[in-house]
Specification:
mainly alpha; 11 helices; 2 strands; transmembrane
Amino acid sequence: MIRDITIGQYYPANSILHRLDPRVKIVCTLLFLISLFLQKSILGYVVATLFLVIVIRESKVPFKFIVKGLKPIILLLLITVGFNLFLTDGPVVLVKFWIFRITDTGLETAVYMAIRLMYLIIGSSLMTFTTTPNELTDGIEKLLHPLNKIKVPVHEIAMMMSIALRFIPILLEETDKIMKAQIARGADLESGNIIQKAKSMIPILVPLFVSAFRRANDLAMAMESRCYRGGDGRTKMKPLVYKSRDRMAYAAMIVYMVLIVVIGRFVPFHIWIF
């Protein structure tokens, strides 16, 4: 389960998405996530699916690697679908048993919510798969640069976000190693009730916190030894410059958003998924 979490990982490949300006990928990812909540019909999700398939194909990231990131949210997905399926009232009752009812509106809402959740994870993961932590830092800092005028420490915020994102796969890998080491020493992490399982996590959490603080200290010492100073006056080895492919990506995203808004405005919600 730990190894299935792919958020924050970078997948090296020679694709047009990898070569795009990080600002383009950040903005387009945010717009795509927003578009998932603008559509109210199956036609809108068909358009979003086609758009996502094209992006995945162009990214050259293996589809099985992307789907792997959905495994950790299966429980959350089932809970979300279950609540929407059984607790949403509607004019037509499709199935009724005991105290539970499945209505047409509940079925539509559950399916749409499941699609939204999966696409949120896939869309966010694609950005980290195709963007290095350094590029993410530069992109976030450049996008938030106007906030410097009101004394917001943009560079420090961007650096913290990038480091936090980069530490996710590192800490997950460390957790996996600690769990295997404890199991090899005879620790039982699976059996027992919830309280017993919580207690069995203590031998994992203590060394994990120690490792996290040690890594943070090593990172701070490495930055200080290199005389790192952020903020104003810091130059870039590779300054961000928009190119023709970046403008084309923006244009494609604008066309997609216009299509989504038009569909959401004129196509009714109650279009059956069957």
